[in-house]
Design a protein that fits this description.
It is a single chain. By secondary structure, the chain is of the alpha+beta class. Helices cover 35% and strands 19% of the residues. The protein has a four-stranded antiparallel sheet with strand order 4-5-3-6. Strands 1-2 form a two-stranded antiparallel sheet. A hairpin with a 6-residue loop joins strand 4 and strand 5. The chain is elongated, with a radius of gyration of 25 Å. It starts with a strand and ends with a helix.
Length: 207
């Protein structure tokens, strides 16, 4: 089975738009629960989401709109099986640029943004300047893409390609949880108490 990639989709039950980042917002447990529900299934009605997170419809709707206005929610997507649409080959390409001037970096990143086959681009530390995820139908199409487009991107001097044999995990949902739900750090108190007991018992042992 192919992996899934998000595409922007419209659903009349939650009005669609691309939202700005105009407000600061504090996310409590209810807001985080709403985000988990929207990531699980954005086609739910506000009433369905409200029931799942333990709110009535009006405050649930208000929280959604507040998160849209603050840029926490940036849009709604449909998950598409890439194999079903003929994108059978996923390639991870490590790219190096000839130099790192501001103009060249800007031109390269703009060209990447304008190249549909490049679905992910990461600027990284290490040997590669960028790591790209590229989707194409097959090996022949990737070879054509490599020579006709990738090598012609501004400043590209070297490309190392790795063909993905299997995607073990390709999760698109963010792990949003409340801070108090995260695992607590290992306590040092027990170690300290044990050390105190050992030190207290030592004089008796010498006696």
């Amino acid at each position: 089975m192919g992996s899934f990639f998000p595409l922007i989709a419209h659903d009349s039950r939650i009005p669609f738009s691309i939202f700005g980042m105009n407000e600061n917002i504090s996310l409590d447990t209810h807001s985080l629960a709403i985000l988990r529900e929207l990531q699980r299934d954005a086609r739910q009605t506000v009433q369905q989401i409200a029931e799942r997170v333990g709110l009535s419809s009006t405050p649930c709707w208000k929280r959604i709109k507040d998160m849209e206005a603050a840029g926490v929610i940036t849009g709604y997507s449909a998950l598409v099986d890439r194999a079903r649409v003929g994108l059978n080959l996923l390639v991870v390409a490590e790219v190096n640029l000839s130099q790192h001037s501001e103009d060249l970096v800007r031109d390269f990143e703009r060209a990447v943004q304008a190249t549909p086959a490049i679905v992910r681009c990461l600027s990284t530390t290490g040997q590669a300047d960028y790591i790209l995820s590229i989707l194409v139908p097959g090996i022949a199409e990737y070879e054509r893409f490599l020579h006709s487009q990738l090598f012609k991107l501004p400043g590209v001097t070297h490309v190392r390609s790795s063909i993905v044999l299997k995607e073990v995990k390709a999760e698109v949902r963010l792990p949003v949880v409340a801070a108090d739900a995260l695992p607590a750090p290992a306590s040092r108190q027990k170690t300290g108490a044990g050390s105190r007991r050992t030190r207290a018992a030592a004089p008796a042992g010498r006696a």
